[in-house]
Amino acid sequence: MKALFGGSKKKKDKKDEAPKEPVPTLGETSSNLGSRAEVIEAKIRKCNEELKPVLEQLKKASKTSKKSVQNKALNIIKRRKMYEKQLQVLQNQQFNVDQVQFTSESIQSNISMFQAMSAATKAQQAEMAKIDYNDLEDMYDNMADMMADQEEINDMMSRDFGCEIDEDEMLDELNELDEELAMEEMTGKVSGGSRAEKNKKEEEDILNDVMN
Prior knowledge:
Layout: H1 26-60, H2 63-128, H3 133-157, H4 167-211
Helix pairs in contact: 1-2
């Protein structure tokens, strides 16, 4: 049967297959398109340089040679138009590739950010798990109790022993001291005035004795 129908074809061995070329990255593709665009831009500049002298010739050309010079200028303009169209296509392609590359990089950036945030959250949860909220509450309760005990101890240590003073009695004593001070000031003014008058009288008597 195999001989009748020619037999089955042998499958190609994988080793015999040519190695696949690596797929270019988006960055490499964009760079390649940019290089091709630079080549086209150089050709456009060359067309402009070629066109300048031809236009000068066209201004000075006679009626017989004007047609040929005009055709030469038109051919240069046609080539320039063709290159400009090719440049536009390449620039649009590069723009699309750059957009895809930017989107891809944004996705990778978001994935990296998510992984970092996820790892940080797990680490924080692991650290928070080390804290027992019951122990934390007990600690604050113990601190509050210790502060209350310390305040009570301070009150006890600053207490006066056997020195109870009536505030009304202290105020009466203060008023008496104020009255005594006022009387002393008045007495000092009176005695000072009489002493000054006595000294003045003595001075007058001495002057009278001298004059007589």
